[in-house]
Amino acid sequence: MVNWNLRFSGDDYFYGEEPNRFLEDQRHRLHAGMSALVPADGEGRNGVWLATLGLDVHTVDNAESGIAKARRLAEQEGVELNAEQADLFSWQWPEQAYDVIASIFFHIPSAMRPAIHQKMLRALKPGGLLILEAFHQDQLRFRSGGPKDADLLYTEALLQADFADATIEHLKKCQIDLDESEAHRGPAMVIRLLATRPG
Prior knowledge:
With 199 residues, this protein is an alpha/beta fold. The protein has 6 helices and 7 strands.
């Protein structure tokens, strides 16, 4: 099990300060004034980027050191960020609270994954958008990052089942070249999902 508090305790940003590329590609769907949740946002790179677009961002992570650096990054970028330290497995997920949820490399053990994904979907307002990128189970063949345990990795079938109540607009496994600091670099197999909560 990764000690995320220790991993994020250094001065540098472990996964860099730039947003995830797939999230950035959805910029045309993101507008100032929207409310956004970024679960497991680590040191805040994705939440802070959303805040620079004018979104009202709530970022939640279990690592105190990550949350401290997320606040520091927000101050550096001159944006407001509601950064909360909490265990997302026991956190009281709100319902119908957000226009957007960005779940980027949030890897959940299979015993808890379906329930957490349902809470994630219910946290969206009707018509709200879920943007998800995670490592596919085939990532085990690569050395560019991610969990080394298949139980923490995803497939198309798993996500289709977890989000059966959503309108899935895009669900695709793809090989990409990661370039998110030394920790996420090189060929990688990811899965990408865009889904909306029915209105």
